[in-house]
Amino acid sequence: MTKEVAILGAGMHPWGKWGQNFVEYGVKAARDALTDAGVDWKDVQFVAGGDTVRNGYPGYVAGATFAQALGFTGAKVMSTYGACATGTQAIEAARAQILAGLCDVALVVGADTTPKGFLAPQKGDRPNDPDWQRFRLAGATNPTYFGFYARRRMDVYGSTSEDFAKVKVKNAKHGLHNPYARYRKEVTLETVMNSKMVADPLRLLDICATSDGGAALVLTSLEYAKKMGRADAPRIAGVSLKTPTFPNPVIEMPHMSTDSGVSVAPNDVGFKDSIARAAYEEAGIGPEDVDLAEVYDLSTALELDWYEHIGLCAPGDAEKLLRDGDTTIGGRVPVNASGGLACFGEAVPAQAIAQVCELTWQLRGQAEGRQVEGAKVGVTANQGLFGHGSSVIVSK
After folding, report:
1. Quick check: 194 and 206 in contact, CB under 8 A?
2. Of 379, 78, 75, 77, nearest to 240 (Cα)?
3. Torsion angle of the four alpha carbons 182, 185, 189, 194, in this order, in degrees rounded to the nearest 10
4. Which residues of 183-202 are buried (b: 16+ CB within 10 A; e: fewer)?
5. Cα atoms found within 13 Å of the Cα of residue 188, Cβ hemisphere only
6. Which of 4, 52, 351, 382 to pair with 81, CA 20 to 30 A apart?
7. How many other β-carbons are positioned within 10 Å of the β-carbon of residue 144?
C-alpha cells in the first residue's frame, strides 16, 4: 500500500503584525489553498486545524473554528497541538485519514496571532509545569535557550559570531522576493553583527521575531489527484513525529537539565538526528537525494545545527557548507529558500505547514525570484517544546 498523498493546493496569509484574529489568517490561507487545488470547500471531507494557545477558547479547537468560519458542511474535524510541530501533526492526521481510506480530500490549516515581544506562558501559577518554571523561576525566555545552543556550538565546533551572521545574510537574500515574508530586505554582515546583543552570543538579527500568519494545504489521495488531472502533483512521501529516547544528553526546551547517563547509555542516534532520519526511511530516500530543505531557524546558530541533523554534512562541517555557498540558492542543497523564520518570524501552528507550502511551490517551479532549479525532493525539519520533533518529505 502506498504511503504517499498528493498536495493539490497550498495557500498562505502573509506574515506580519496585523492585529487581527488568527481565524482570519487561517481562512484566507484555506481559501487560497482550495482555489489552488481547484477543490470546492463542500468537497472537503476532513479538516485538521493547528491550535494556537494564545487566543482564548476557540484557539484550542482550531479544526472546528476554521470549519465554522468557512461554513459548516458536516466535515470531520480534528485539532492538534505540539508547539512548533503542531502543523506537522495536523498534516499527519490528514494523511492518516486519506491512507486509511476514510476520506479522499482533506484541508490542513494553521494560523496564529502573537503578542509583541518574546513568547510568554499563559497566565496563572502552574509550579509543576516545566514551561512555567523556566519562565517564572529561571527567567529563561526562548532566546535564552537559543543562546545556550549557540554557545554549545561555539564550544564544540569552534563556530564564530560571524558564521551565525552569515546565515541571516543568506536567508534575508532568499526571502527578498517572497511575497509572504514579513521582512523583505537584504542585510549586510556588519549590520547583523552590530545589532543589539540579546542572548550572548546571539544578537537581535540572529533571532527570529514573533509574527501573525497562516498557512494551509489541500491533501488528497493519489486516485483523487489523478481524477482531477493532477497526477503530477507533488506528494508527501514521508512524515516523522519523533520524541527523544532516554537518556537525552542535550538540554531541550523547556527543561533546565539533561537526563543522567549513569545507568543507561545514550542512544547511538540523538533526538534531533532521529527526526529527519525517520522521514527519510519512510520515504525510501537519504539526505543525498534532497534538493532543498526548509528548517526551523529560530536562531541563525540553530540553522547550522539542522544542516547536520538532517544529514547534509557531518557534525562540525555546517560552517564549511555555509561558507562554500552550498546552502545558498544556486548551491548544492539550498536551505530556507523561502527566507525561513529569519524573514517570516514565528507563527507557531502555521510554520510547519508553511514549510510544506514552500516545498510544494518549489517542486512545481512556482517560487518566483527564489526558485531552486530542478528541485524534485525537499525535506522539512522542525522541533516543538517537550520533545515534539517533526519532518516532512515532499517529492515529485
Report:
1. no
2. 379
3. -70
4. beeebeeebbbebeebbebb
5. 3
6. 4
7. 18
Whole-angstrom Cα Rg for the chain? 20
Residue type, 302: L
Provide the terminal-to-terminal Cα distance of the chain, rounded to the nearest Å: 18
The C-alpha cell that represents 14 in the structure block: 502573509
pTM: 0.97
Q: Where are the alpha helices (DSSP H) in the chain?
A: 22-37, 62-70, 86-99, 130-136, 142-157, 161-174, 189-193, 222-227, 271-283, 300-309, 318-323, 340-344, 348-364
What's the burial of 58, exposed, middle or buried (CB within 10 Å: 0-12/13-18/19+)?
middle
Question: Looking up cell 494560523, which residue turns up?
Answer: 111
Burial (0-12, 13-18, 19+ Cβ within 10 Å), 74 = exposed
Backbone torsion region of residue 59, taken as left when φ is above 0, otherwise alpha when ψ lies between -120 and 50, otherwise beta? alpha
Residues forming beta bridges with residue 215, ordered by sequence position: 12, 110
Instruction: Measure Cα distances from 252 to 244, 316, 349, 355 in Å.
Output: 10, 20, 19, 22
Q: 119-129 pLDDT, tens per residue?
A: 887 778 888 88
| CB burial of residue 85 (10 Å; 0-12, 13-18, 19+) | buried
Omega before 179 within 30 of 0, i.e. cis: no
How many CA atoms does the CB half-sphere of 40 hold within 13 Å? 3
Least confident of 25-29, 74-78, 263-267, 350-354: 263-267
Distance in angstroms (rounded) separating the CA atoms of residues 137 and 325: 42
**Cα distance between residue 48 and residue 69, in whole Å:** 14
Q: Do the Cβ atoms of 53 and 100 come closer than 8 Å? A: no
pLDDT the model gives residue 221: 98
CB atoms inside a 10 Å sphere around CB 268: 8
- Those residues whose C-beta lies under 8 Å from the C-beta of residue 56, and which sit 6 or more positions away, are none
CA–CA distance, 294 with 217 (Å, rounded to integer): 16
Q: What is the helix, strand, coil percentage profile of the chain, to 5?
A: 40, 20, 40
Q: Per-residue confidence at 287, pLDDT binned at 50, 70, 90?
A: very high
